[in-house]
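Task: encode each sequence below as structure tokens.

Item 1
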Amino acid sequence: VRQLESNEISDAKIIASIQGETFSVQGDDEGYFEFNITLDKAVKAGYIDVGLTIENNAYVHHTLATIIGDQKLVGIISDFDDTLIISEVTDKMELAKNTLFKNYKQRVLVPGMLERFRKILSKNPNDTPSTLFILSGSPQQLFTPIEGFLDFHHFPKHTLILKKAHGDNKDPLTDQFAYKTEKIERLIRLYPHMRWFMFGDSGEKDREVYRHFKEKYPHKVMNYYIRDVVSGEIKEYNKI
């Protein structure tokens, strides 16, 4: 249960330093923030250092920003629970046990999924940044254990997108279709040259979401894969 605890700094001014340029944004009531910026200098595809500070605080946190250019790459959008990790989302009691009383080393990896990801991403040139996006309906408070699980099992570099469950500007709480279509639409618009492979499971709305995007963007969404939460079988869909 401790992994759900957090100590937020609300409404703080966050300052980002990127290649000699400085930007600022106001955090929300739960300490979350987002930068939408345009750099004066052109940036090559790859990873660049970003320094983050809180106003009037000397500590600088360094992270890497992923820069994806206009190359025609393949990308992956994947669910997390019951797609990459056995969570038993359809059984709320088992879901609670798995989430609250097991650490990431005790959780079970879905067999074969990591190998599928590596095979798809190997289609990209070796020097391109990772194009793996993990889109989960889990709350942002679970960021640390989810990242711990992905790192423990040596997943490729990735972007993890989680649900803002309460506070200002929260995501839809129970409407998974609305939540995921909004996030995926944004990714497709951000990376118009990307060809997408999508992974999900039969427990919630993944098949309906991915079918929606296959119909809307038939030349951008190549295949989507749905894992049956009962049998464990993974089915591939490549037609509308």
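Item 2
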Amino acid sequence: MSDGVQAVIVDLDGTMVDTLGDFDVSLNQTLKELGRPGVTRADIERMVGKGSAHLIRSALLQGGLGVDGATALQADAWTRYQAHYLAINGDHSAVYPGVVEGLTALRARGLPLACLTNKPHGFAVPLLKAKGLLGFFAHVFGGDSFERTKPDPLPLLKTCEALGTPPANTLMVGDSQNDGIAARAAGCPVVLVTYGYNHGEPIALAPHDRLIGSLAELA
């Protein structure tokens, strides 16, 4: 890692925690209640990463609803999904190997850390707490914390402001093109993990400065 890095921003789903199990349970329960076809984990892996509203809408559209039909069900689906997700948040997910080691090493270097995710803030904080990761972060921002979400650069720029560090000296660590595109546009260096969720596309095609197989490699 570059000696010029003064702070680190870390994504959540697919980067620190494998949350496909939580998405699977809560989303399919929601779809079942609405009388809609379920989705597979492979489907969810392609859909996840752009926020919960996008995930729900994608599942409704895949189930055969047109745009108007999906729009009509969106609000009801979102209300049901929130209840189901909060009830099991973290129960079917696991911290990836090397995450605790990597975060511990970054903190030992005196680097302030922020978690920036497209997941709603109200989902992100309880998940981080349940997995023993919340204490690593000076700030946690979700997909509803700012006016726009990744891949727009605004969330990264706002997070840099909160950290008090210039974008050029603030490393973004993520798992998808959303993270890479947002980091490039914000002027942040970016490291992407080779596991995680990238909409079914090779992660090497996403903008990045380095690829790593574990956050422990940031030590």
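Check on item 2: The longest strand covers residues 170-174. Residues 67-88 form the longest helix (22 residues).
End of task.
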